[in-house]
Amino acid sequence: MELTHHLGQIGARAADNALDEGARVLSAGMVDVDLSLVFMLGLFLVFAVLLHFIVLKPLIAAQEARQKGMGGAREDASALELKAAEAKLDYERRLGKARQDAVVIREALKQEASATAAATTAAVQADTDKKVLLAKGELVKFGDKARSEMKSHADQLSNDLATKLLGGNA
Asked: In the chain, what are the domain boundaries?
């Protein structure tokens, strides 16, 4: 029984110690303010300053230089894009004008060709009409000559035929 009593006392003391330790922790707060906190804060500030001058300042300067360089390149690119757009508009305007001029030239050539064709056709028609008139005139002459020759021939033949049929001179 003594053992049970002894164990009970040990358990009671452990519980009392645990309660005392818990109360002490709760009363102490989350952070103990002592010299190590000041040392850590100082060490943090030293590294923050070193980091600022060794890493952040050169990085910021490099980014600003890059932005400046890109800004100039962007301005140049914008200017070149504007110039290219203007050149394209000018090219399209000149191409449209050239196409209009080509239509005008083609129509002029077409009219000229039509006029030349009409003049050539008229000249050929006049020449052909002249040749037809001359040929008609020659045919009339040839027909008249042939008729006159045939008339004398016809007279001779009719006389010969009448003589043969009638048996004598006519």
From this structure: 40-166
